[in-house]
Amino acid sequence: MVLEKQRCPCGTAETYQQCCGPYLTGDALPPTAEALMRSRYTAFVVQDSAYLAESWHSETRPDDVSAPTGVAWRRLRIRQTIDGGPSDDTGIVEFVAHLRTPDGARDFLHERSTFARERGRWVYVSGDIR
C-alpha cells in the first residue's frame, strides 16, 4: 500500500509521510502515547506486524504479534487521552476503531489502552476492551 502522499489512516489531516510514516519506518519515535496509538492503528491498516511487535512492551508482548488479515480498518476516533505527554512516563488512550470484517460486516473495537516508556520510548502495555 503506497501511502506517502495520501492522508494518514490514523485520522489526522496530515499525510502519511508527515504523520505516522516516519514512526513505522523507524526514522522517528512517537513523542506521546497518543501518537504511538495512532501509529499502531496505522500499522494495523498496512499490516506491519514488525512495528506492532516493536511497539509492544516486552513484558506483555505475546509470542505472535500478527496484524489480522482480511480486516478493513475504516476509521480511528480518539475518545480520551490521560497523560502520555512528552514528559510523562505513562499514559492512557481510549479509542474506537471502526472496521469491516472479512465477511463484510461492520464492526468496531472500543479499547482503553495503557502505555508506558520502555528504554525511553513509548510502548503499548495492555488494553481493556469496552
TrEMBL record:
Residues 32-127 form the YchJ-like middle NTF2-like domain. SUPFAM superfamilies: NTF2-like (SSF54427). InterPro entries: NTF2-like_dom_sf (IPR032710), SEC_C_motif (IPR004027), YchJ-like_M (IPR048469). It comes from the Bacteria. This is YchJ family protein. It comes from Yaniella flava.
